[in-house]
Design a protein that fits this description.
Length: 437
């Protein structure tokens, strides 16, 4: 409960089984007037950076949680005074105090259902009778001025996080990006040692400690659980992918792919989807409670993406139903949103199988850990030009090593080997992809 005449806003249930979140940045301060839907803070869950909108019209009385603090769902994070609560979470008129959870269930005679408060209608008012009168009375009793919101600094979430980690105030930096946007380079330049400091100061400590939270903490826990729960088997194959490299170059020049990013990962993804049709075991999951193997019909293709916040694995929904052009667009959008911290929470759920691409780092191969809840993960190494037997002669060819880790409870060696061989076969001769679209 809040103080007399005040309204508390509690951290909402953000879905996907997330029990807590870190308050990354407050967008408002005590004394600020806020409007419905105005963003009041950014929170970081184990999966994404999320902006929380104000569920009320009112004045900020108190910020109850500090930036950098991790709180559980249902914890009061901010207090408003003189708050006008939208009809969908309307306070009982006889109760002076109230708490608002952003997922309050408030169905009414007009069929509204539970929703994230603040993302509802902004202009229309479908309230009738006594509800309209109560709303009008509160509007007269609480004069609402335009919110006195301090100017925000233009910077993407990963850049803001980097600045926070290095103890820098964004308002003190000058952005060199488009329209004055502060970039990663600006933060790194501001945190670099100055020329006047001859040697780094030492206080007797030769180590740096960074507490883990949010995404990195959850990733660590998930990987440990997967490694020691699912019996991993990893197999390797090295293949001449010169035809795939040539196909990528042709697609880049094709009008249908104009404006779309085309890389070998696109062909690898399509090859994986082809192999998955022949070996559906790689798209199954283990139901521990029921002791059953569950095979999904829809294929949600996970792509491991290295971001400033750590490793993320969003997935392309119903990837098997996409054409090659649609898949190229989906992969590009997915990776860009992940790196910019704009991935939707829904993009992290329901993954079927994952691809991790370490080739961009110049690494040839690895033994990847399976993403929890999935049966396999395909690791793509670097494509290298090297001598290779070709048509009974030695020629300089583009060669790639693939590795597949799979859960031996779900996939036996025969199916795992067959799946990996099918992926390699398509990359060695991708003409079959023409028929697949």
């Amino acid at each position: 409960m809040g103080e007399a005449g005040s309204t508390e806003f509690r951290l909402p249930d953000l879905g996907e089984g997330l029990a807590d979140a870190e308050i990354v940045r407050w967008m408002v301060a005590p004394g600020d007037s806020v409007t419905l839907n105005q963003i009041i803070c950014e929170v970081e869950t184990a999966k994404a950076l999320v902006e929380l909108p104000s569920p009320v019209v009112g004045v900020v009385a108190k910020l109850r949680v500090s930036e950098g603090e991790t709180v559980t769902v249902g914890t009061a994070i901010i207090t408003f005074e003189g708050a006008d609560v939208p009809a969908m979470v309307e306070m009982p008129p006889e109760t002076p105090d109230a708490s608002i959870d952003a997922r309050t269930e408030a169905p009414d005679d007009e069929g509204r259902s539970s929703m994230l408060v603040g993302y509802g209608p902004g202009d229309g008012d479908s309230r009738t009778g006594a509800r309209k009168r109560r709303h009008a009375q509160r509007q007269r009793a609480v004069p609402v001025e335009q919110p006195a919101v301090s100017a925000t600094v233009a910077a993407k979430p990963p850049v803001r996080r980097l600045a926070k980690e290095r103890g820098l105030e964004l308002s003190n930096l000058t952005g060199t990006g488009a329209n004055g946007v502060i970039t990663r380079a600006d933060v790194e330049a501001a945190s670099a040692p100055t020329a006047t400091s001859s040697t780094p100061s030492r206080d007797g400590h030769d180590e740096t400690r960074v507490p883990i939270s949010g995404l990195r903490k959850r990733t660590a826990a998930a990987m440990v659980s997967s490694a020691f729960t699912a019996p991993h088997v990893t197999e390797f194959v090295t293949v001449d992918v010169t035809p795939t490299v040539e196909l990528v170059e042709k697609l880049r020049a094709h009008p249908a792919f104009s404006g779309r990013k085309v890389t070998p990962l696109l062909i690898v993804s399509k090859a994986l989807l082809f192999a998955l049709e022949r070996h559906p075991e790689l798209g199954s999951r283990w139901d521990e409670a029921a002791q059953e193997i569950v095979t999904r019909r829809e294929v949600n293709l996970g792509i491991a993406v290295a971001t400033p916040r750590g490793l993320m694995v969003p997935n392309v929904k119903d990837a098997a139903g996409l054409t090659l052009v649609e898949l190229a667009e989906a992969l590009s959008g997915l990776t860009e949103r992940a790196r910019d911290g704009k991935t939707e929470l829904s993009e992290f759920s329901g993954g079927t199988i994952t691809i991790t691409n370490i080739g961009g780092f110049g690494i040839d191969t690895g033994t990847p850990i399976i993403n929890p809840g999935e049966a396999g993960i395909l690791c793509v190494g670097a494509i290298r030009r090297q001598p290779w037997e070709y048509r009974d002669e030695i020629a300089l060819r583009s060669v790639l090593t693939l590795s597949l880790s799979f859960d031996h409870r779900l996939v036996d060696g025969f199916e795992g080997s067959g799946f990996l061989a099918d992926v390699a076969r398509v990359l060695a001769d991708p003409t079959e992809l023409i028929a697949l679209g």
